[in-house]
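Tutorial handout. Part one gives the primary structure; part two gives the three-dimensional structure as C-alpha cells.
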Amino acid sequence: MESTKPRPNVLLIVADQHRADYLGCAGHPVVRTPHMDRMAATGTRYVNCVSSAPLCMPYRCSLQSGLYPFQHGAVDNRGHLELDRLEAPPLAEQFVSAGYQTAYFGKCHWNREAARGVPEYVPPHRRLGWMHWEGWNNGHYSYDMPAYSEAGELIHPWEGLYEPEIMTERAMRYLREDRDPSKPFFMQINWHPPHNATSMREFERDPDCLTKAREIDARLGLNLPDEAFTSYWWFCQSFPQWLMFPVVPEEFLRLYRPDEFKAPPNLNPWYRGVLGHCSVEYAAMITSLDVQLGRLMEFLRESGLKEDTVIIYTSDHGDYLGTHPGKAPFRGKGDGSPESSRVPLIIEGAGFDGAQAPVSLPCNTMDLHATLLDVARIDPAARLRGTSLLRAADRPHCLGSCIGGRSVFDGECPTRWRRRPTANGFPKGCATCACPRGARVRRRRRTIRRGRRPCTRRCASCWPPRARTSVR
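Part two.
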C-alpha cells in the first residue's frame, strides 16, 4: 500500500574533485569544514564511498542514468551520454513522473551536442528532465561563469562574481520565488571547486604567462618539472593558480599556510616543493564550499523547509594531489586509486539522522542513484545497478572504478583489479596507494629490486617475474 505521507524534498549537492579525506570530520588536521562536520554529526557520513566513474563526464552520466560507463557509452570526457542506450528514463524524469518539480544549477557535462554554434549551451531536449535550468555543459569557472537564454544566447557572464556564491544564491532565489509550494522539489546544485579553475582566458591574454610562472617557481623554490611550463594543460594542473590568478576569494586563502600540509608517503618526488602551495588552494576552495553549505542550511531552516528535506553532499571524484606515480600533472583523477576514487558522502534528513557513528559500508555512485529514488519513494523504472543506502545490509565490497578497467572496493583500498596482475606481479593501483596494503606492496617491490625474493611461495602477489630474454 502506497504511503500517504508527503514525499520529502531532495537537495543534492555535487562538488567537483573533492576527495574524501579533505574534511575535518574525516580527521584532516588542517582543512576547516565546520558546516560539513556538523552535517555529518547530525546525519550520516559514509566513509567508504567511491566513485564508480572517477572522471567528470562518466560520473555525471552514471548519476543521471543509473548505468556504469561501459553501459551508457561515456567512458571518458570525450564521450557523450547516448540516450538510446538508457534502460529507464533519466533520474530527473522519474522524479517529474512522481510529481516533483526539478531544478538544476551549474555544470552538467553530459552533453556534446553543440547547439547553434554555442558549445556550452545545453538545449532543452538534452537536459534530461530538469525543468528549471541554470547550467552549462562544461567549464570550471571560479569567476565569470556563463549564463544562457533559452535561445542559447550568452546573456550575462557573471563578471567578477565567485561561482559557488552565485549558484547558491540562484538556488535560494528559485526556492524563494519560483517553486510551487504545493509540490516537493528535487534540486541538484553543482559547485565547480575544488577542481582546478579554468584560467584559459587569463593565460591567453598574457603571452608571458609561462615565463612569469617560471620566475615564481624559482623565487618560491617550487622546483616544478619542466613539463609544467610546456602547455596550458600542464600549467593549470601543476602550478598553484592562486599565485597568478583569482581562483578563490582571498579570505579563504588567508586561512592556510603552505607549511601546514605534510607530504603523504606516496607523494611523487616531482611535487615535494609545490605540495604546500597547491594544498593551500585546494583547502581554501573546500572551505569556501563549506561556507556556501552553511548558507543553504540557514536558508532552509529560516524558510521552514529543512525538516522536510533530505540533503546530500558528495563529489564526482577525488584528486591525486601529487600522488600519481607517473609522468603526470599534480592535479588529476581517472583511475581506481584511493586519492582519485574515494569521495565524501554525507546525508542528512529523514532516515539518515540520529547523530550516529560514521558508516563503513562500501558504497558507490550506483547506490547513490538508488538511494535518491528510494528517498522519494519512487519505484525504479528498470533494474537498479546499486542498492539504496536505506536498505543496504552489511556487505564486504562494492564495484569500484569502471574506467580503464574494473575494480572491487573492499573498504580498505579500491584497487583490487579484476584483471591479471601487472608485469611485476602486483595489482595496478596498490603500488602507489597510501593505504596499509600499498605500503606492504611498496616494501615487496623494494625487496625485489634488491634481488631478494620476499617469500618462498609462487604467489601472484609477491613472486617476481622471470627476466625476459632478448630475441635477436
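Part three, for discussion. The mean pLDDT is 85. Residues 202-238 form one domain.
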